[in-house]
Write a structure and sequence with these properties.
two-stranded antiparallel sheet; 53% helix; 11 strands; mainly alpha; 718 residues; 28 helices; globular; single chain; Neurolysin, domain 3
Length: 718
């Protein structure tokens, strides 16, 4: 996933600020605050070697004060409102605050601790209140509206779009509300900011708290590397002679896939499913209720029928009905395929045990048996060819072949010693940006994988491009010994390619105005997901998938097995994803709030309404669904599949030329999509690249939901 800040906090990632104001608060009692000083580091990266947790709160306080002064200056300008003195001035305000917010929230997700959590609890409502203060400043809005009212005569399309987007941003934030309704909206936003922090902190605590310690019987069937890692985890947790497994994917998935003891698979999987659902101090069910109640009230206050309607009004999908149409088109064929997969697994279980009793914690275990039986593919036998270094080299190789990029290791300050830093050079060897890579799980790091920025691309007042500083954060399987590299599975490999697509999007972004940098949430996964298409292409595999000991390329027989297994378990993968998308939409499409039993609501949404089989759980359940309650994807989780319609159709543009590495197509994709940000709506950008509306057929075919003879060309948004 792309790392996104909460919508209210994200404002500060697009509201820049000039640095002409001077304040004595640049200094702490023992010297300058490094967050407020000029960054005299290589390439201007954050001075992590000088930043301490104590610096963040005073830096936020000072940057907010400076941004407020900037806004006051715009609002009180005695000159008649114009694009330059109002819209452009607003667009360039707050850059220092944005810079600090970028650093803080990225580090808080990747390297958290109780002190950082305490800062986050103070900062989040501060930012929310600051945002509301700007959005509800009547003098500022009157100037914005004056420029907007004359926008039809604006000849410059980018100035016109920025004006329109700025006006809409104010309106969607309550600028047209009465004073009493503005006050209530501010209360709602403040409460939501705290609830979001609480949700995330509760989940982090639960992820850290649960472990499964087993004796020698519990490791039966597990690969050697998994056993070695579990032994190391046991030593670290003070349980020598045992093996410890956690809820992190590098531990969880191998255990569910290979562990022979069914009772232990059940215990670990239920530990994953029941996070923040125990009725204790870290239970999130009431937090979910409170967030849904407040989001629903806010949407109605702003004139929308539901939170989903509010969110989608600003996305490609536009309406909840369009989202449900896409999900419904995929649900039935995906569920049919999943039930066929289940039948195959039950046959194997019946043969092995005499019983076809089957539970959700059995799926990975028996799916792996089907994979071996039908495709003769043992994923553990593939790992030696997918060392982390090799996969990284493969991604660098692909980026060079498509776009002419090169990556040069550099020495620069890091927030954690495990980070690697690269300078990114464009095809003409000019500086394009800086890349941070942070690969392995540790205490204080959120689960999953994401891409974000420490510094966004922008232009200074003199028209000079400021290059981005981009970070990819993952939770890949650690090396099991000093002389053995980290060996990735196919899913981790695809994840690396995915997040690198987000990184390329950030590197290639080239927009004049900060307010035109962001794209719709249901468009943002296109650059990441299209990269996954190349991950297992035979030509690229032969170049990067080299045995970590011998250096020999992956044999063609294994490549063929990977290709043959592309449709393996796609029914399950699609259903568990769609199930989570439905639960997101259903809870956020409520027009009226009433107290919810969130577990019962989920059951009604999936089992009763849509016929989800008990053997499949949704990818995320409400109490730990961080994407929608802590990650900026509320009423937006469908965006991954929406973007997949685009990415599969876009990849076909390469395939149709007979050269999947066609640089001309790649450069057109960069020029028309990756560099444009939000200078036009997503569908316009896509049509400019592809010359047509995207078809759903490539997605359906890629997931095995239609046969080769099927003909479907329904557009993505139809």
């Amino acid at each position: 996933m792309k790392m996104t800040m909460p919508r209210l906090i994200a404002l500060f990632l697009i509201l820049p600020m000039t640095t002409t104001l001077i304040s004595c608060r640049n200094h702490t009692p023992d010297g300058p605050n490094p967050l407020l000083s000029e960054w005299d580091t290589p390439f201007g990266v954050p001075p992590f070697d000088r930043i301490e947790t104590r610096h963040y709160l005073p830096a936020f306080e000072e940057a907010i004060a400076r941004h407020t002064a900037e806004i006051d200056s715009i609002a009180s300008n005695p000159e008649a409102p114009s694009f330059e003195n109002t819209i452009l001035a607003y667009d360039r305000s707050g850059r220092q605050l944005a810079r600090i917010a970028n650093v803080f929230f990225m580090v808080a997700a990747a390297d958290n601790n109780p002190e950082m959590q305490a800062v986050q609890e103070k900062v989040s409502p501060m930012l929310s209140a600051h945002s509301d203060g700007i959005m509800h400043d009547e003098a500022l809005f009157s100037r914005v509206k004056a420029v907007y009212d004359a926008v039809s005569s604006e000849p410059d399309p980018l100035r016109k779009r920025l004006t329109e987007k700025t006006y809409k941003e104010f309106v969607r934030s309550g600028a047209l509300l009465t004073p009493d309704k503005k006050q209530r909206l501010q209360q709602i936003n403040g409460e939501l900011s705290l609830l979001q922090v609480k949700f995330g902190n509760n989940l982090l605590s639960e992820n850290k708290a649960f472990t499964l310690a087993v004796d020698s019987s519990g490791i039966a069937g597990l690969p050697t590397d998994v056993v070695t890692a579990a032994a190391a985890a046991a030593e670290k947790s003070g349980k020598p002679g045992q093996w410890v497994f956690t809820l992190g994917k590098p531990s969880l998935i191998p255990f569910l896939t290979h562990a022979e003891r069914r009772d232990l698979r059940e215990k670990l999987y239920k530990g994953y499913l029941d996070r923040c659902n125990y009725g204790n101090e870290t239970d999130n069910k009431q937090v979910v209720n409170d967030m849904v109640r407040l989001r629903t009230e806010r949407a109605r206050l702003l004139g929308y029928s539901s939170h989903a309607a509010f969110v989608l009004d600003d996305e490609m999908a536009r309406t909840p009905e369009n989202v449900y149409s896409l999900l419904d088109d995929l649900w039935k064929p995906a569920l049919r395929r999943a039930m066929d997969e289940l039948a195959d697994m039950k046959k194997i279980r019946k043969q092995e045990t005499g019983s076809d009793d089957f539970a959700s914690w059995d799926w990975w275990y028996y799916a792996e048996k089907v994979r071996k039986a039908e495709y003769d593919l043992d994923e553990e036998a593939l790992r030696p060819y997918f060392s982390l270094e090799n996969v990284r080299n493969g991604i660098f190789m692909l980026s060079n072949r498509l776009y002419g990029l090169t990556f040069r290791p550099v020495t620069a300050p890091v927030y954690n010693s495990e980070c690697h830093v690269y300078e990114v050079l464009d095809m003409d060897n000019s500086h394009l940006g800086v890349l941070y890579l942070d690969f392995f799980p540790r205490d204080g790091k959120s689960v999953g994988a994401w891409c974000g920025t420490f510094r966004d691309q922008s232009y200074d007042a003199e028209g000079k491009r400021i290059s981005p500083v981009v970070s990819i954060v993952c939770n890949f399987t650690r090396p099991t010994s000093a002389n053995r590299p980290a060996l990735l599975n196919l899913d981790e490999t695809a994840t690396f390619f995915h997040e690198f697509g987000h990184a390329l999007h950030n590197f290639f972004l080239d927009v004049k105005y900060d307010g035109l940098a962001s794209v719709e949430h249901d468009f943002v996964e296109l650059p990441s997901q299209i990269m996954e298409n190349w991950a297992f292409e035979p030509e690229l595999l032969r170049r990067y998938a080299l045995h970590h000991q011998t250096g020999n390329p992956i044999p063609d027989r294994l490549i063929e097995k990977i290709q043959n297994s592309k449709l393996f378990n796609q029914g399950f993968a699609t259903v568990e994803y769609l199930a989570a998308s439905y639960t997101d939409m259903d809870i956020h499409n409520l027009s009226e709030y009433a107290p919810l039993d969130v577990n019962a609501f989920e059951k009604k949404s999936l089992s009763e309404k849509r016929g989800l089989i008990p053997e499949i759980e949704p990818r995320y359940r409400y109490p730990y669904f961080s994407h929608i309650f802590d990650g900026g994807y509320s009423a937006g989780y469908y965006g991954y599949i929406w973007s997949e319609v685009l990415d599969k159709d876009a990849y076909r543009a390469f395939a149709e030329t007979g050269d999947i590495f066609n640089r001309d197509v790649a450069l057109r994709f960069r020029r028309e999509v990756l560099s444009k940000g939000g200078t036009a709506d997503g569908m316009t950008l896509y049509r400019n690249f592809r010359g047509q509306e995207p078809s759903r057929e490539p997605l359906l075919r890629a997931r095995g939901l239609i046969g080769e003879s099927s003909e479907t060309s329904r557009p993505a948004g139809a």
